[in-house]
């Protein structure tokens, strides 16, 4: 039995390392780990960019600004409609005259 130069543990190690090299599971794990590192890095960059600002507060500010914008736009459209009515023209004609877009 001493003719065999390879021990069970060394054969097992060779097989394990060759399987690791071709194992698609390990490659998928490596890709997931790399993607996780990328996302963590991106998260840190966004935290730095956000600084001490509260995300909820930022969203609420944007909602408030959009609400104000929509109120102003609605008022403007009402005035354009009245002007069109007074001048016997269409709203489309007024938009074209003033160089305004016909859609949002």
UniProtKB/TrEMBL annotation:
Keyword DNA repair assigned to the entry: answer is: yes
The alphabetical list of record keywords is: DNA damage, DNA repair
What Pfam families does the record point to?
Swi5
Q: Where is the composition biased (Low complexity)?
A: 1-18
Provide GO CC annotations from the record: Swi5-Sfr1 complex; Swi5-Swi2 complex
Listed GO biological process terms = meiotic DNA recombinase assembly involved in reciprocal meiotic recombination; meiotic joint molecule formation
Matches recorded under InterPro entries: DNA-repair_Swi5 (IPR010760)
Q: State the residue spans of region: Disordered.
A: 1-33
Which parts pass through the membrane?
Answer: none
Q: Which family, according to the similarity comment?
A: Belongs to the SWI5/SAE3 family.
Q: What is this protein called?
A: DNA repair protein Swi5/Sae3
